[in-house]
Every structure is written in structure tokens, then in C-alpha cells.
Design a protein that fits this description.
CATH topology of the largest domain: Thrombin, subunit H
CATH architecture of the largest domain: Beta Barrel
Number of domains: 3
Distance between the termini: 40 Å
CATH class of the largest domain: Mainly Beta
Structural class: alpha+beta
Number of helices: 9
Shape: elongated
Length: about 500
């Protein structure tokens, strides 16, 4: 997710903005009256459950007057950009004032339990020293952060009210239809709730903010300060959490995004029980199945997630899943494209025995995987084994617009190729060739041709020639970077 920026200083840049705000906002104008009359009834029914989230952070302004180092996406970046600009305009000199500053940030949230459980966006409360929840009637309650999840940008807060609070329920976002009316409610400035209405413009949007993007897109105005607020259907059920907008200026232009309630419920339930999110882990590297790759691997129609690599310590390896397999179904759910697999795996309970349907060399097979747990704090590194020293002299072969050579100690040293990487080294790439278009480069290693290992350049050339004789339109290569990261590349043979 891109960081917030000052729209005055960067007016031409189109950015995805987190819909949070700083303490000097400009209030948006009134929304046009439109839509069914029931919008008013829903708003009256749920507005007391929508709250303002107020945070405070102490930041040391001692870096020679320069803007402090803040994490990407911090809601305080705009504050310091404006602050330093004002200091310079008033004749302030670098290093003149090193007093720590208290800064405020405002966002929205909503109550899901009358005892005081509040949902908001993680970026609203990120790096805050203090968090307060301000109710629609103005009551301020100190909040405790029960848990947060950076990958879905969600957080769960707890307050202790004097009496039960108004709470709202989640609906089923999977039942949303394109064009369906929705209501976005926020409480950005602790002045009371604000209501906007619109329709569902799209579903399953990927805005490259995280590995599990699956946003609802709506044209209901989501302005700065509305981050963490609920998106309601006309039954008064929360079907999304308003999170981001696309805008050149920071205001709504009718393109807003909300995390769907199906995702929210799963994350919040885990934060409520464990104070963390426990996701399933398959232990594979995947990539998109392009039309070229699908044709070469006999996958018709093009679909699924292509396994590019296997973690030696992951659950997929003992289950018999191999690089080159295409996962088309996981736990009974169809994998239509690559990004479906990480989301489904993450939502599957840790330790569950899952049936996985793969296509291997044109035939469907079923494997059973006992799902592991994805631990973000621990990086699992596969153990590497040393290659047996080779006395083969480097040879150069031309294939696919590539100069290829057998691996030698000199080439390993020249291209910094790790010992565990085996195959044929690319030593040159012809400009304008299909290989150049696929961004192959010297130092990369071709480990497999059409899912078969290759040990030397002559063998690779022979296989490519045979594929051409067989009338194949493309060849699929397993290409490994010098660091050992694998990926499949389809190169045209025509």
C-alpha cells in the first residue's frame, strides 16, 4: 500500500491512498440524494455503532530539522511534510528545535460486540502510543489493541464502557451483486457519523496492497478519515471495511475499496481468540499459468497456479507435489488463477488434511497435504548441498537466442551462483530474441526443459530441437536465479 502524501505538493500523481486523515481536514461536501428510501432507515439504525478512532504518537524531531523516519504508510507523513514546510516558510532553521512533538491522527471504526469490541484498519492505529475510541454521542474511551493483521490491514480494539454499546452484525459479502446498493459510514472528525451511498462497482479487486487482496470496489464516497469504517448493505449488515481509495488529490473520485466481510470475520475471530492470525502454509512458490505455459503443459483451459518451487521443509514436499505441477483445486475449491491459491490456503485451518488436485504432464492427480502454519516471524531456509566438482570445460551452445554453458567453478564464481543450483548457465542473450522478451539474463540457470532436468548444454539443445520437430509452439523452462529462486518461463519456438 502506498504511503499517504500531500496532494498540494504532488498533484499529478495518481495514488492508492489509505483513507486516514490528520487533525486539520477539510470537510467533504454533502452527498447527492439518491438511492432507495431505506438508506435513511439503515443509517438511523446503525450509526451509533460507528465510532471515531483517535491516536496519539510522540515523535522526536531532532534529525537536523528533517522529517523523522516513519514507516511506509504512516498516517503522520502528511503532518511532518506540512510542518517542515511551515517551519521553512517562517524562517525556521534546521536543528533549531529538537523538542519531541505529540501528533494526532483520526480514523473510523465500528462496534461488533456490546461489551466493547471495535474493528478498524491497522494503518489507523499503526505506531500509536495511545488509542481512544470516541462514540457517536461524544463519549471518549481509552482503547486497548487486542491484535492486528498487517496483511489484511485489520485491527481489533477493546474498550470498557459504562453500559452496553450499540453493536452491528456482519453480513455475507459473497452474496453481494454488482450494482447492489451499499452505505459507507465513517466518523472521521469525532463530530458524529457521516453517511454516503453508492453501489458495488466490482468485486475481487487486487490493488497490490498485500498477498490476500480481494477488495469490494464501490462508488460510495470514502474520504480521508473514513478508514476502518463499515460498508453496509440495505439490511444494516456490515459487508466490508472501508480501507483505501484511488485519487489524485486525496478526496473521493468514486473509486473506493473495502475488505470483504468474509475476510474480516475470519481475521477478527482469530484476533479475538489468539490475538494473532494463524494462517495455513503449503510451502510452495507459485506463478501465473499463461496461455503459453498452459499449452506447453497440456492444461486446457489455462487456469490454476503453477508450482515453481518447493520448500524442502514444507508440507507440499512429503505430499508428493513437485515443481511443474499446476494446482487446479484446493480443499474442494477451484483455483481459477494464481492469486486464488494463497488466499484459500491462508483461510484453511492449520493441521487440516487437504485434498489437492493437480495437473501433471496433462493428467489430473490428487494429493493429500497436511497443512502447516505460516509463521511470518520465521524464515524457513532449505538446507543446501554442495555440488560435486566438475571437470567439464565450459562449452557454448546456441538455443532460443541464448548462449549456454555447462556449469563450472569459474562460472559459479563469475555469476555468484549458489552451490545448490544445478543446470545449464545462460552466458548471453540475443537482443530481440524471445528469451530477451522474457527478461532472461546471463547468470540465470536453466534447470529443466519441459519438466525434465538438464545436465549440460548439448542435452538442452537436443531437447529444444526435438520439440520443434514435434510441432510444439513453445517450450517451458525452469529458470533459477543465481540465488536459487525458481520460476517457469514459456518461450516461443516459432
Amino acid at each position: 500500500m502506498g504511503a499517504l502524501f500531500n496532494p498540494i505538493t504532488k498533484p499529478a500523481r495518481l495514488a492508492i491512498l489509505l483513507a486516514a486523515t490528520i487533525v486539520w481536514p477539510v470537510l467533504a461536501g454533502p452527498a447527492q440524494a439518491r438511492g432507495p428510501e431505506s438508506i435513511s432507515d439503515v443509517a438511523e439504525q446503525v450509526i451509533d455503532a460507528v465510532v471515531n478512532i483517535s491516536t496519539k504518537q510522540t515523535v522526536d524531531i531532532s534529525n537536523n530539522g528533517a522529517m523523522p523516519q516513519l514507516p511506509p504508510g504512516s498516517p503522520f507523513e502528511d503532518f511532518f511534510e506540512e510542518f517542515n514546510k511551515n517551519r521553512r516558510g517562517q524562517g525556521g532553521k534546521p536543528g533549531g528545535d529538537t523538542t519531541p512533538r505529540r501528533v494526532n491522527s483520526l480514523g473510523s471504526g465500528f462496534i461488533i460486540d456490546s461489551t466493547g469490541l471495535v474493528v478498524t484498519n491497522n494503518h489507523v492505529i499503526a505506531d500509536a502510543d495511545e488509542v481512544s475510541v470516541i462514540l457517536n454521542d461524544g463519549t471518549t474511551l481509552k482503547a486497548e489493541i487486542l491484535g492486528r493483521d498487517t496483511k489484511t490491514d485489520l485491527a481489533l480494539l477493546k474498550v470498557t464502557p459504562a453500559s452496553p454499546l450499540k453493536a452491528v452484525k456482519f453480513g455475507d459479502s459473497d452474496k453481494l451483486r454488482l450494482g447492489e446498493w451499499v452505505i459507507a459510514i465513517g466518523n472521521p472528525f469525532s463530530l458524529g457519523g457521516t453517511v454516503t451511498a453508492g453501489i458495488v462497482s466490482a468485486r475481487n479487486r487486487d490493488i497490490n496492497s498485500g498477498p490476500y487482496d480481494n477488495y469490494i470496489q464501490t462508488d460510495a464516497a470514502i474520504n480521508r478519515g473514513n478508514s476502518g469504517g463499515p460498508l453496509f448493505n440495505l439490511n444494516g449488515e456490515v459487508i466490508g471495511v472501508n480501507t483505501a481509495i484511488i485519487s489524485p488529490s486525496g478526496g473521493s473520485i468514486g473509486i473506493g475499496f473495502a475488505v470483504p466481510s468474509k475476510t474480516v470475520v475470519g481475521v477478527i475471530d482469530q484476533l479475538r481468540e489468539f490475538k494473532e492470525v494463524r494462517r495455513g502454509w503449503l510451502g510452495v512458490r507459485i506463478q501465473q499459468v499463461t496461455d503459453e505455459i498452459a499449452e506447453s503443459l497440456s492444461v486446457k483451459p489455462a487456469r490454476g497456479a503453477l508450482i515453481a518451487g518447493i520448500d524442502d521443509k514444507g508440507p507440499a514436499k512429503p505430499a508428493g507435489i513437485e515443481p511443474g505441477d499446476v494446482v487446479v483445486k484446493f480443499d474442494g475449491k477451484d483455483i481459477k488463477e494464481m492469486r486464488d491459491l494463497p488466499k484459500i490456503v491462508a483461510e484453511t485451518p492449520v493441521g487440516k488434511d487437504v485434498e489437492v488436485t493437480i495437473i501433471r504432464k496433462g493428467k489430473e492427480e490428487k494429493k493429500t497435504v497436511k497443512l502447516g502454519r505460516l509463521d511470518d516471524a520465521e524464515k524457513k531456509v532449505a538446507s543446501a548441498t554442495k555440488d560435486t566438482p566438475s571437470d567439464d570445460k565450459p562449452v557454448v551452445k546456441k538455443a532460443l537466442g541464448l548462449d549456454l554453458a555447462n556449469i563450472s567453478d569459474d562460472l559459479r564464481k563469475k555469476f555468484k551462483i549458489k552451490d545448490k543450483v544445478k543446470g545449464v548457465v545462460i552466458t548471453g542473450v540475443d537482443a530481440g530474441s524471445p528469451a530477451a522478451e522474457k527478461r532472461l539474463a546471463p547468470g540465470m540457470v536453466i534447470a529443466e526443459v519441459q519438466q525434465q532436468p538438464v545436465g549440460n548444454a548439448a542435452d538442452l539443445q537436443k531437447r529444444v530441437d526435438q520439440l520443434k520437430k514435434d510441432g510444439k509452439k513453445a517450450v517451458v523452462l525452469l529458470v533459477v536465479s543465481p540465488d536459487g529462486d525458481p520460476s517457469f518461463v514459456a518461450i516461443s519456438l516459432q
